[in-house]
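Changelog note: in this version the structure field was regenerated for every chain. One regenerated record is shown below for reference.
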Amino acid sequence: MSTNAPVVSVETTSSSGAPSVPLSRDEQQADDSNDAIVPAPTTATATTETDDNQEIVANSGNHRKFSNRVFPQKLPPIPKRFKKMSAKSSKSVVKFSSKVKTRSIITSEGFQVVWHNLSFMVEKPSFFGIRCGKKSKSPSVRVILKCLSGSFKSSELTAVMGPSGAGKSTLLSCVCGKQKQGVSGDIRIVGCDRIKVAIISQNDYLTDKFTLREALLFASKTKNTDRKVDHEEVVNNVVNALSLESVFDTRLGRCSGGQRRRVSIALELVSNPNILILDEPTSGLDSVSCLQIIENLRDLTQHKKNPMAIVATIHQPSARVFNMFHNIYVISHNGQCIYHGPPDNLVHHMSYVNLTVPLYHNPADYIVEIASGEHGEESITRLATYRKESLNREINIDNNVDGQTVSSHKLSKMSQKYKFPILLHTYLLTKRSFLLLIREPHLSWIRFSMAISSSLLLSLIFSSDVDSAEGCPPRKEKLYSDNPTNIYTNYETQQKLIESNVGSLFFNTVYLLYNGVLPMLMTFTNEFNCLTKHYTNGWYSTVTYFISKLITDIPVIMICVFLYLSIWYYLTDQIEELWRYLMVLVIGILVVLNGQSQGMICSAIFSRDPVKASYLSIITTTPFFLMSGYLVRTRRMPHYLRPLTYLSYTKYGFESFVITLYGFNRCWYPETTNQTLVQPSWLRFMKVMVASIGEHNANDEDLDFVNEDGDSDEDRATNDILAMFSGQRVTTTSEHKYQSMVMSQFELNDDMLLSNLISLSVYTIVYMIIAYFVLLRQLRKSA
């Protein structure tokens, strides 16, 4: 133990129950090195045999002191569901009282986190209980951690060592409560009523476009919501503590690897956490950067106002870095603890199981070699057995010692509950998102350029004479003046133009849908990693993130829709009515919002794999296109598939476009018929035929030609002929309104526009709610 460690008063009792003189930390170290591992001989001894048949003498009599580093106190009763596992893994079950009766393990200013019989298991993958072609009644499991016990305390820097895959990160995830499924054992905190934990992952998920000052100010404002907090002072203190003054106004994307790692630590220090957990903070760094980070972490543990407990996983540190830790906790490749204590006591510890560190060999490298199994499984078994025996001896001694009673609590219950001010966090996140949008505009410019180029290309491909393609029946004057050939030719021309224009409307729906889906697939994966880190450490809530993202994306969506539809509307000569143009923009925005929500759902489901998210978006959008009613008319679909069309928001978007452009009196004609014109013979013949059909089928529902206004038979026949050109069944001749053939082909009417807009709005809200809960579930799963 280093000589500059803080002094801890430890009060012991003799066999008569009288308290002895408090020991300083230096006296404890000296006592630990002499007799903590090998107790002084007394009258009563117990012998145990290791795997190599070596006898180790263990004292069970009165002893002045044992090492308080391995397992320094008794815990409350173990839950029943954990007792079975504990009984199998150890020969004796130790009972603990509800209060910790032990020596003063910690000072009044410190705390300690203790775990006992902590195990973690995962189920092996199976397919309906069948594994390797054989049926299994109970699913087999793989044990990652095997009944581990240990502790860490404030004012100390603890390293968790072991080979890759040993379970170092899993142990810390279980201790801090991040991992809940498959965990058994007891985790307690002593000496603190409320705790704040900060977790720093191995990867530095930072927003590269922000400077260090901006990132720290944002972190301080979101995590320290008290108005009395001086955020500038907090930021300056953190920067000075981690020696980041040289990059204070530098963008994070230009920082080195070691600086980025210290920035990740600084972002969590602004909230003054009690426990700081780091996953491999030195990975990928050179020796100088590694040493600097460990020095900074050690200094943080000695902070006078807030002495933290810092725990870090590390692979194979150098000898200098290894000796800077206060404690090390070594896990073998099979999930057993083979050492827990100060680094300068490691060599002495291994010597008692006949393991000697080679000359000029780093003890950290040697213990990791043993933990990885390079020196045989027997060495791991001897170390693990000796540690369990030492642990049981300390617990037995503590049971016979009357000391101060210290309350212990479940760590999961003592973790601080975060409170998020929605308005403040929404404002901060929205401001941050707009700033990022300004500094990283390439994606927005790509979307704008794509909208302009796609609309231009669409306008060149489709005809520009669609303004004459109204799909309306000819005027009465033309029935008198034109011959049937010209009327039929005009009808065919209009039909082709209508097909072209309706095709462009369907393409608009598809383009706008993917205009919302694709940007979300490309950007959300990177955002999710940063969002997971912020959610884990309690920066802000998922609701505020979702609202701020929606507020930020709406202006971009409106600009893209405006550019695309305005160019298309003008170059294709659509009907020049302002309300129709504005309604087309509204429908386009609703379609994009639906696509964006669907893209967020797909991205949240496969948050770590954008390729899978892209395939999922294609799979989920294709049925919507088929059910839109354009490729196959709804009335031609099988009866059992027609109800599914109501689930397609592309159907509502496409139909809304058609009704807006071809409905609402698009075919209204004023009554200007010149009665002096002579009717051609073919028109008189058609009138006679229509009139006779109307009389013969007056009660036929299939030919519902109705004379609602008391017109003459001749006028009624003329109106019926005009109605046949538009494909409609009923006409209202008094107002001289005729429905466009487009409306008739898709079985639409004017009243459906409002219901379609409401359906689009409802689907937008429903998809956003689904996206929110999927995102929340993924965050809770990843956090």
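Spot check on this record: The radius of gyration is 39 Å. The chain is about 50% helix and 10% strand.
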